[in-house]
Structures are given as C-alpha cells and as structure tokens.
Amino acid sequence: MKSQNGVTVMFQPEGRKAVVNRGISLLEAARKAGVTITTRCGGKAGCLMCKVKIANEEATALRPPGDIERRKLGTTLEEGVRLACQAAVWSDVTVQVPEDPLKAAVRRKLEAARRGEEDELW
Ligand code: FES
C-alpha cells in the first residue's frame, strides 16, 4: 500500500519493491527494498557499477539526469540507462537491475557444469 507522499519503486528481475519518498536516489530505494546494487565509489558517480535500466516510457518517473550523470553515461542515457546513485525517484517506476558480474560468472560455470553432467548421462 502506498503512503500519501510515497512512490513505489519496483526492482526487476527480483520483483522486490519499496515505497519511498520522492527525491531519494534509486540506490537508496534499492537498499530499502533489500535489493543489492554493487558500488565501489559510495554513490559518488565514480565507479559506474550502479547502472540500471528504465523503460523509455517511464523515463519521466525519475528526475532528469544532471551534468555529472550526463557526462558519465553519454549516449547510453538514450537507451534508458541511469546511475542508481544519481537518479532521483519522482513517481512510480520499474527498474531493471543487471545481474552482478560475479554472480553471472558463477551462474555460467554452474550451468556449464550441469550441462557437462548431462552430457555424461547421454
Ligand atoms: S555508486 Fe558508483 S557510480 Fe553510482
């Protein structure tokens, strides 16, 4: 349920959401929702590890990017990429969080191992 001044931020693919105050960053909203977005710079637009994606039709649900975010993201902004530490929530929005690179590598290894086992069965 939505609070009077709150907006709902849905994080996919985990399907977790948080009701937050307008103006907080997507990174803060993710923490509130229990979604991990890896960072190294502490939210200072330095590491670019907090990239998330927003559907074009929802672009206005976030405050427009500032100079720093524009400079860091360049043309990827047009593809809906935003820095979670810089993008401020304005209205209800769904955010696509890319898989953590380390987790992705482990998942690929496990899948390859599983396929190897299946190959042995045939
Ligand atoms: S947390 Fe480092 S760029 Fe956003």
From TrEMBL:
Pfam families in the record: Fer2
TM annotation in the entry: none
Tagged with keyword Iron-sulfur: yes
Cofactor dependence: [2Fe-2S] cluster
Record domain 2Fe-2S ferredoxin-type: where: 5-101
Similarity comment: family membership: Belongs to the adrenodoxin/putidaredoxin family.
Xref: PANTHER family: FERREDOXIN-2, MITOCHONDRIAL, FERREDOXIN/ADRENODOXIN
Protein name, entry field: Na(+)-translocating NADH-quinone reductase subunit F
Lineage: Bacteria, Bacillati, Bacillota, Bacilli, Bacillales
